[in-house]
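Dear H.,

Thanks for agreeing to be a second pair of eyes. The structure we're designing against is below in token form, covering all 146 positions.
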């Protein structure tokens, strides 16, 4: 499914029907009021083989939404959180990096992480090839330490 309009319930049912076969998911939400609080828990519980996850701007997610994904979706190789830079915390992102050893692409543009947090995050992604930290809070010195 490439483009369609649906509610959170329909999206949950769609993902559930794909379950273990689902390896890629891109959620783009145009409606600002879309709430997917329990969605990541459902996603993580039924999609352990998820390799690519792109979450778009305007998703209303709880601060700890990465935790179920970090504990279950260990096959992740590509993660794009650049449009939801204010919806995750460093600790959960670091846990995800540690639990997803094959993560090779990470988009966290506009992130407010500190220099040492960026450095530690990169150190915990041994296969990282692409890191997008454009428009983030990293300093020139922080870039030199990556």
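And this is the sequence the design step returned. I haven't edited it by hand at all.
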């Amino acid at each position: 499914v490439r483009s369609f309009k649906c509610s959170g319930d329909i999206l949950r049912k769609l993902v559930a029907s794909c379950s273990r076969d689902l390896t890629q998911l891109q959620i783009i939400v145009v409606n600002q009021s879309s709430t997917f609080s329990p969605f990541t828990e459902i996603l993580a519980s039924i999609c352990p083989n998820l390799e690519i996850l792109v979450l778009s701007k305007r998703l209303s997610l709880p601060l700890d939404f990465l935790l179920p994904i970090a504990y279950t979706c260990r096959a992740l190789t590509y993660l794009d959180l650049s449009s939801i830079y204010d919806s995750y915390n460093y600790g959960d992102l670091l846990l995800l990096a540690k639990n997803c050893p094959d993560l090779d692409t990470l988009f966290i543009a506009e992130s407010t992480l500190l220099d040492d947090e960026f450095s530690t995050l990169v150190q915990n992604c041994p296969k990282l090839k692409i890191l997008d930290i454009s428009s983030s809070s990293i300093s020139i010195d922080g870039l030199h330490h990556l």
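Two observations from my side: The helical segments are 8-18, 39-46, 66-72, 90-99, 115-123, 140-144. The longest strand covers residues 24-27.

Warmly,
E.
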